[in-house]
Amino acid sequence: MASDTISSFKRASLCSLMILGSSLVLTGCGEDSAAPQAEQSTMKTLNTQVIYLDRSMLPPGSVLKVQLADVSKMDAKAEVISEQEIELNGAPPYNVALEYDESKIADRHRYSVSARIENQGKLLYISTTHNNPFAEDATDDVYKVTVTKVSAKKPDVTLTNTYWKAVTISGEAITVENKEPFVQFKDDGSTNGHLGCNNFSGSYEVNEQTLTFNPLASTKKMCVSQMDIEAAMSAALAATAKFSINGEQLTLLDDSDEPLATFAATYMN
């Protein structure tokens, strides 16, 4: 009788262990097979529409290039977020979808959509205004960008004896409240101008298309506004290694041929 009781107890214990083991195995399998939650995609689409207002027909082979960039830093090259290039057929409007990562868009940064139409490397149309698709007043489903026709090329002006008014720094248009930044080059190798707050003077060295500024001296006035423009202008002059003149536009370039700043010519008497 005692042996029968012990055998029954062993069988019950064994069954309990088998059931418990099965539960552990099932539980373990359940944990291993649990599918990880899919990460939410941060990719978005910015639908843009590019137009021009005149009635010109584009020559065959024309292409449209549209770019979304972070233009927050005036003293640095714009960071490209997204860009597209399409071949054009017919008249505007031209619709372009820009895919971008929403997680890379910061609330306090400035962004701009730029567009240009080219044909065999020749610039035909270009956007000339700041176009921020994330501004509070940009509520349309399709963001519209207007490009303007590039005027016929004017004869190149000379580097020296010209008043060069600053137009853009790091691709960002300059807006001033007071005196505009400018630079002048004299035949004797001297240079002077205005940085945005302070005046500067010094010397420069030029050889064909290379251009460098020697250390410049400036006044030490403190201004309530335009100090960011002054810092960007100073950085552009310090980084200048080359230059190009196209008609009445001067472009300062770094040693990698990247544009630093552009200037418009005003003739001196």
Molecular structure report:
This protein folds into two domains: 43-149, Immunoglobulin-like; 162-266, Lipocalin (Beta Barrel), CATH 2.40.128. It contains two helices and 18 strands. It has helices spanning 2-32, 227-239, and strands at 43-51, 63-70, 79-87, 94-101, 111-119, 122-126, 143-146, 148-149, 162-169, 172-173, 182-185, 190-194, 199-207, 210-213, 217-218, 242-246, 249-253, 259-267. Strands 9, 10, 11, 12, 13, 14, 15, 16, 17 and 18 form a ten-stranded antiparallel beta sheet that branches. A five-stranded antiparallel beta sheet has the order 3-2-5-6-8, with no helix packed on it. The longest helix has 31 residues, at 2-32.
List the helices and strands and how they pair.
Elements: H1 2-32, E1 43-51, E2 63-70, E3 79-87, E4 94-101, E5 111-119, E6 122-126, E7 143-146, E8 148-149, E9 162-169, E10 172-173, E11 182-185, E12 190-194, E13 199-207, E14 210-213, E15 217-218, H2 227-239, E16 242-246, E17 249-253, E18 259-267
Parallel strand pairs: 1-7
Antiparallel strand pairs: 1-4, 2-3, 2-5, 5-6, 6-8, 9-10, 9-11, 9-18, 11-12, 12-13, 13-14, 13-15, 16-17, 17-18
